[in-house]
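Researcher: Batch entry, complex prediction.
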Amino acid sequence: MIGDYTLLEFSSILAMQGFAGLILFSVFVLMALGLAIIFGQMGVINMAHGEFMILGAYVTWLCSGLVTAYAPALFPAYFFIAMALAFIVTGALGILVEWAMIRHLYRRPLDTLLATWGLSLILQQLYRSVFGAREVGVSLPDWMMGSFALTDIIEVPINGIFVMALTMLISLAVFLLMFRSRWGKQVRAVVQNRAMAGAVGINTKKVDRLTFGLGCGVAGVAGSAFTMIGSTGPTAGQLYIVDTFLVVVFGGAASLLGTIASAFTISQAQSTMEFFMSGSMAKVLTLLTVVGILMLRPEGLFTLKMRR
Amino acid sequence: MNTTLYTRREWIALAIVAALILIVFPVTMDVFRLNLVGKYLTYAFVAVGLVLCWGHGGILSLGQGIFFGLGGYCMAMFLKLEASSPENTAIQSTPGIPDFMDWNQVTELPFWWVPFKSFPFAAAAVILVPVVFAYVIGAAMFKRRVGGVYFAIITQAIAAILTILIIGQQGYTGGVNGITDLRTLLGWDIRTDSAKFILYFVNAVLLIAVLVLGQMVRMSKFGRLLIAMRDKEDRVRFSGYSVADFKIFIFCLAAAFSAIGGAMFTLQVGFMSPSFVGIVPSIEMVIFAAVGGRLSLFGAVYGALIVNWAKTSFSETFPELWLFAMGGLFIAVVMAFPNGLAGLYRSHVEPFLAKLTRKSPPSPAPDTAPVEAVKLAAE
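Model: Structure tokens for the complex:
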């Protein structure tokens, strides 16, 4: 007996909280992956990252509306089309932003931070003007509704499992792209030594632009996945941005593996503590612990060893 | 090296600022508008702190709202306790404690509220609490050589944590509404028009004192070191200076300035709430300094006045356009006018004035150099 619960009940509650944590983990990973690519690899602070995510969510919402209206037969599979579209639209916007703004500011990271914050305000207001201030939700296809019953007490929702599977797939794709492809090799070369990378014939400006586009595109897919588990409003992106930055910094800015490990730690800690205390205190404690650890170990959990 | 505190041009600039806020505003505005300007000027304290800390020291803090809020809350706690005398709160189930505590079933004044019954303690706490807090953050970060964007993100996270904490602990802090319904300061009713008028002048005089103090820091040897640290931190360290201690000092000083602003805000506006603490207000405070010119102390005052005035009038008439304007402002001051209004004044108005008076144009001020240098380095 633990408190008023039997051992079985208690472990089931832990499992349920753990599962809720896994969904939070998926959102964190999807958002943080894009951010880690941009921040870790390029040293650019993109405060508008949350708004790129929300753009992906709105694209998915539009898709869901259009498919329901014009091609109801496609409805069970519309989500995959929406995801691809979200990637393309946000990636394109990312490339545009890099061209218009970011490339002028590479040596001034603090200024990039302020400029992208300005961009995020503009995008928020744009969403509010175009899509309205109210939150929107997509309708899920039938096969995503409902939940599995693992035991009598533990139930897991199917859309949660779907989002988790998606997260794993996207993480895998990003890993393959960064560590197995020729392009990924170029990106890593530019990160490690820009001048030498340029000297051996890598077009560093093009690599920068595509990296930024890829980071934003991944954010768009994250937004697309986000619509499966929550509703979307113009300011939803801002709610996650600080958490996500902490995830990236805590994981070690240049390490994608660290990002995933820290997303897992933070989300699990938060959702487990949420059961024992109020949600706000759980968040305060989690964030305080992260900030405290960062003060002791500023380079984060995982660091990339390289000569400077 | 300058041995005098102000050059002639700067004396004139100081005189113009002083005349504007001490004479022009009070003469031309009614008490309501004047109170509004007084509120804007409390943000100028924060902006002046940021000019020193960010513009000169290169430390971008996205958490100045923390210190503004802490200063404001310390003042609000004192005023709230004075307003919650047992006679005023006789209808509560526990008379003598603030109303929001009673609503949240708190039956006893928490121990950390008790000292705020004394005005000297509260007045000291307005400065000391934020400064100690800034010292802890600064010492933890700068001693480990955490700087730049990491510092910005962590201060931002702390601002977020503090907001969540204040909102979550409703019974002790007043929650999302903040501490409201403040009435008297040592028996003096702060809600009357005459009190607002007097408080405006107290605020204005304090602001000028802070401006002079800021100029003293700028012109001292420490001010030179600050700029050196921003541009080549390692060289300053290798020259034998303790970079971390200097950074902690300037960060604490900026926190103290913000805290004074926060306390004056509470006195003039009559409440304090977490909406002045969090991420969004904190980053807006940076834009006040950026618009005025991140290197100009006087610019900070104009920046705070202009941005807040624009915000009030825009959001009254075209609320949906305000965020576009604000976002555009952020992008513009970074990409087109990195030295803000002060930079525009120096590059456009000053040569024009010089032509008018037929004197040789003044030599470009050393302040404009850094951003230019950064630009050159980027190309």
